[in-house]
Amino acid sequence: MYSNYKSRFTVKYLIVITPDGFVCKLSKGYGGRATDSFITNDCGLLSCIEPGDTVLADKGFPQIKSELLKRNALLVIPPFAFDPQFTNSEIDETYKIASVRIHVERAIQRIKLCNILKFIPITLLPHIDAIMHMCCVIANSNHLLKILKRPIKKLKFPGILRRAAVKGRTPYV
């Protein structure tokens, strides 16, 4: 879909990130005008949600709350300031969410580092999903290499791949 705002064609993806910062699910590409809630409902992500799961999302996803409640899962969205100022509890909640959300933002940045995504000729549009898949694989590989370079005592999540595989959420490769 052509975006007047960005003055080019845009494609949207839903990307699921593990708490360790790995991409574990990638939707197919949708036209840039598709809403976040539509993509979430259409791509089959909700069928992967298990009871007890927590989903961190931003303000574009409030419509999926009822679906997650049906599956006994929790939706966490940063609070919105209805008054000019947050309350102390809202400030605390925002900090907690931001400390996790930073991993999501970093994962998305690692994907965007793939130079091919800066400009994709229209002739490659039929291959955009495969291109995005490879960018996610590269991002995961770079993230894993960065983790493996750390000294063992500094690893926050030792055995991340093993634990992720046990829970059925293997990194996207």
TrEMBL record:
Domain spans labelled DDE Tnp4: 1-140
Keywords for this protein: Metal-binding
Molecular functions per Gene Ontology: metal ion binding
Required co-factors: a divalent metal cation
Superkingdom, taxonomy of origin: Eukaryota
Cited Pfam families: DDE_Tnp_4
Protein name: DDE Tnp4 domain-containing protein
Presence of the UniProt keyword rRNA processing in the record: no
Isomerase recorded as keyword: no
